[in-house]
Amino acid sequence: YTLVAKRNGFSYNKISITLLRDTLGNYIEAKVKANLKQITVDGYVLSRVKIDSATIKESGLANIPVSLLDSTKTIKKVNTLNDGHFDFKQKLEPNKVYIIRARLNEEPEEDKNAVIYCKGTVTHKDTPVQGATVELFENGKIADHIPTNKDGAFIFELSSNKSYTLTAFKAGYDTNSTSFSTSKPDIKKGISKVLTLDSIVNKKTEMIEMINYKGVIKDSSGNTFRDVQITLLNNDKIVAETKTDANGGFNFQLQPNKEYIISSTTKGYLEKNINISTINNTKPAISNEIKLEPIKVNSVMVWENILFVTGKAEVEPGSLPILDKLLKFMEMNPNVSIELSAHTDTRGDATTNLKLSQARAQFAKNYLTMEDISPDRIIAIGYGESKPIIPNEKTEKDFQTNRRIEIRIIKQ
């Protein structure tokens, strides 16, 4: 058996236990103590020297000052050991952005090469906006991006004598930007910015242009479902989540000229994904019914939007939320076992595609088992290009349709 203790803000603690029978057939009691480990940060400061075109030498740098900062202050300073290792042992808060800064020389903040910090807040009607994306552009090119925390705050490190632009955006709001430079003598004191986001409005009528989507979840007999998990995605990113009410209904506010996926998940039923488009939509509201099918052996669910790194088994970071939806399905239905199969398009060598698809199927299985889904519930198989949905693909959409993960129910 494996005991797993979890809490937000702490790393996992897993303890394996073997229960043995004694000669009388009674179980021996095993007692363990599981302590949660607080999140900490450690790492190395290394120098990288290019020896030749194919060789890079890395070595640890000793006695380098390293600082840990949050959005408001420096929390801790340490120096690296002989091998370049550093360690911060104080408590870190969950769902918060931190910065680690290493400096080759301990220069005073007034030095011309000192780091300049841009601290700011994103607000809407004087209320902090959590989860807004703030992008930093340096001389016209994107240099960094960061989500705002629960206080709507963000922080960036800047260089002197540069031109910068900050852009903040979030679904349901107008984008806001501000530009500045770090060439003024007093800029070393730091830069503070407040970016205010307004709701999307029609500039002529001042009326909100958001489109109201109203859905209802039913089964094949017309019965409605309560507490169904509903997820709204745009460009494979989760925009919003909700649950159905007592009448099986739910609502989302959609932006105009967008493509969305609405995903429905509940215990005992296959996950259902539908496409919703607001492109060229002239109606203020959209409504429809989503019908769920019960889980049955040999039922199949298809995920076309799980994107892998080209030629590799690793999933693109933006596709991890889709794997999380599969994880939620497996957690909701603990008696279900699946065949998890990966498929490629027909481009490239067939043998290579077969091996690649097997590695990708195994990657997805590993992702689920790391979240404590029993490996006995998952059979990972790669079919390569042998089972295309669209034979003789012609368009990029055709190729994408054939590159997919399929889930077939093999036990219920």
Q: Can you give a write-up of this model?
A:
The chain has helices at 320-332, 350-369, 396-402; strands spanning 2-5, 10-11, 13-16, 37-38, 41-44, 46-52, 55-60, 65-69, 74-79, 85-88, 99-102, 116-124, 127-128, 133-138, 141-147, 153-158, 163-169, 176-181, 191-196, 211-219, 229-234, 237-243, 249-254, 259-265, 272-277, 285-292, 300-303, 337-343, 378-384, 404-411. Strands 12, 13, 16 and 19 form a four-stranded mixed β-sheet that branches. Residues 106-112 and 202-208 have low confidence and may be disordered. The chain has three helices and 30 strands. It is 10% helix and 42% strand. With 412 residues, the protein is mostly beta strands.
Topology:
Elements: E1 2-5, E2 10-11, E3 13-16, E4 37-38, E5 41-44, E6 46-52, E7 55-60, E8 65-69, E9 74-79, E10 85-88, E11 99-102, E12 116-124, E13 127-128, E14 133-138, E15 141-147, E16 153-158, E17 163-169, E18 176-181, E19 191-196, E20 211-219, E21 229-234, E22 237-243, E23 249-254, E24 259-265, E25 272-277, E26 285-292, E27 300-303, H1 320-332, E28 337-343, H2 350-369, E29 378-384, H3 396-402, E30 404-411
